[in-house]
Design goal:
Blueprint (H helix, E strand, L loop, with lengths): L3 E3 L24 E4 L3 E4 L2 E7 L2 E6 L2 E4 L7 E5 L6 E5 L3 E5 L5 E5 L7 E6 L5 E14 L2 E13 L5 E2 L7 E5 L3 E6 L21 E7 L11 H4 L7 E11 L2 E16 L5 E18 L4 E18 L13 E7 L2 E11 L6 E12 L6 E2 L5 E6 L3 E7 L6 E11 L2 E4 L13 E10 L1 E4 L6 E6 L6 E7 L5 E8 L2 E5 L6 E9 L2 E10 L1
Antiparallel strand pairs: 1-22, 2-3, 2-17, 3-23, 4-5, 5-8, 6-7, 8-9, 9-10, 11-12, 12-13, 13-14, 13-15, 15-16, 16-17, 18-19, 18-28, 19-20, 20-21, 21-30, 22-23, 23-24, 24-25, 24-26, 26-27, 27-28, 28-29, 31-32, 32-35, 33-34, 33-36, 36-37
Length: about 500
Amino acid sequence: MKKTIAFIVLLLPPFLLVAQNYQCIRTDGQYFFTDGQIQKMAVIDSVSINNGTQIIYFRPTIADSLDNSGCFTRHGASWIGRRLIVNPEDESVFINQDNEPVTIITGAETGNTWKCYDFPNGNYILSTVEGIFPYEFLGIMDKVKKITFQAYDTSGVAISNQVNNKYLLLSQNYGLVRTLNFSLFPDKIANNINYNNVFCSEFELCGLNEAKNGVKNLTAADVYNFDIGDEIHTHYRLSYTEFDELNTYLQHHILDKSYSPQLDTVYYTVYKCGYKKKEYFDGNNNTWVITYTYYSYNSSIEYFLGPDPIIDLYPEGFTIDSIAWEEWMYTLNTQEYFSTTNRSFKRNYQAFWSYYPHDCLFPSYDYIEFDYFIEGLGGPFYEHPPDPYSTEEYHPVYYKKGVEEWGTPLNMTICDTTTSAEQSVTMYSPLAEIHPNPMNDQAIVTVHYPGEPVCSFRLFDMTGREVLNSEFPGNEWTFNRKHLPQGLYFYSIAINEKFIAGGKLMIQ
């Protein structure tokens, strides 16, 4: 039996909360930042206070072990740093992935400059407060400090660096409004496969627990929050080989909604309509067989809205599936914006594995499968990459929720009725054909074969003499009669020198 282990954020007692103007990270806040696509959360694991100095430990995540072993570790630095040291002298120090300090003087005034980072070779980075001004974010108005960065060599000459011209915005009462991923400050490069930023980058605040607007940590209650009248269209694809594929196209219409007495379960009545297309190659008869099955029916669905160990997991969190006592599989969580919409979605990558004693995690570079859940659209949707046997994927292609609309709708005649129905139609087609036949000056040779095969077309006269032999790439080729006289001919079509079709051709 699989055992799932979830790493949970620790709740902080009130006596560890420190009130301070222009504090970078407040321990009673939930901060979400974005680079425009990825949503990152500053998740606090624990806090300690010693002689007035507060140390905020950020929750670790899966990252490169940094020992040149090729291993990853589940104790890697958070995107915002390993920890944040808040000194009583209005000084905040972020610790990057290499345990190097990055100092932010939160009490500095306009024009103040200080050395925030030292390179091992003596070069350094200066920070400057360029201004203090009112600023609006997430519907909140507050004063912010703009803090910029510039690298210098040992002679004090400005030099090139990734952090040059990047800046922070530090709010007086709410903390960082614009930040960097301090784990990679100033010019570290992350060796990871969890689809996060691999260089030191800027992030804007996009969610705060005290803001009415903005991103929150996505939960099961958010994912399965449909309203009556919502419409979601989906596409499911299962391919065993290039000769055997199943596609299902469905519309989902929300007709009714109710809750359990405890309000922890939601019930929906959903009208589903669409069709399933099954196609495969019949080698015995050298034909493609395509079967369409049309559906139209009502379905009852229920979702539990309580804590979900997968969906509710904070971004950069991970779970461990114990496949066997000696082998673990790790699923890493990210939160992002869905396509071009403002809706969030959680993506879970099954991207790492380890053997006992589990001190070295190996990345699954060649085979990374993921499931994802979308705010107000449900899930799990998924994409499982090709393995030796199959490829499987399931995605939304269109939705309409109130006045909000995205994607291209699936227009299917069977969805014009609410009457339950199911019917199937099977069609057969040759693997290759030529038309028109009889022909005059031109004919089109069509090959029903996946991908772009290399095909050959051979033509013989009534005596068996070969009069034409031509190769063509792709699935279609135009045959020109040229000098050939009228009469009956025989043709042969092959793919990779393997015969697939043949017959008679009449030239008029």
